[in-house]
Structures are given as C-alpha cells and as structure tokens.
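REQUEST FORM: STRUCTURE PREDICTION
Request ID: SP-0412
Submitted by: Lab K.M.
Chain count: 1
Length (residues): 77
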Amino acid sequence: MTTQTSGYTGSHQCFTNYSVGFNLTGTACNESGSTSARNLYSGWDVNPNGTPLVYNVSMTATVKANGTISGFGATVG
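STATUS: Completed
RESULT:
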C-alpha cells in the first residue's frame, strides 16, 4: 500500500494467475482510504473466448490496521 498503515508501506498489484475460457484485461487498479483502513480496488474487462461479449467486473478488498483483510477478491499472499 502506498500509504503507511499500521507501520507498514508496501505495494498493491492487480493481477490474475490464470483464466480458462476468458480473456481478461485490467481496466483499473487503485487504492483509497486512511491509515486505519485501505480499500484496494481492481477492475477487469472480461471477454468469453469466441464471443463478441465484453463485460466489466470489479473487486475491492479492505486492509485494516490490525492486519485483517476482507472483501471480494481478498487474498493473503
């Protein structure tokens, strides 16, 4: 995270490890909040292989000063 939270400053990266049957394109990767809780946001365009369809999905994870992480897309790495 770019803002010091609970004495730590680090980085926030938006990525996918793999996809099957879909093409993914990152559209947004940002963070907001305060030193007590940071909201990490990622947005993606999703295109099912072999179709002209494209739809957008997003995920937000909240990292709190006590170290807990919650929200859709939250991972511990």
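NOTES: The chain has a mean pLDDT of 82.
Reviewed by: T.R.
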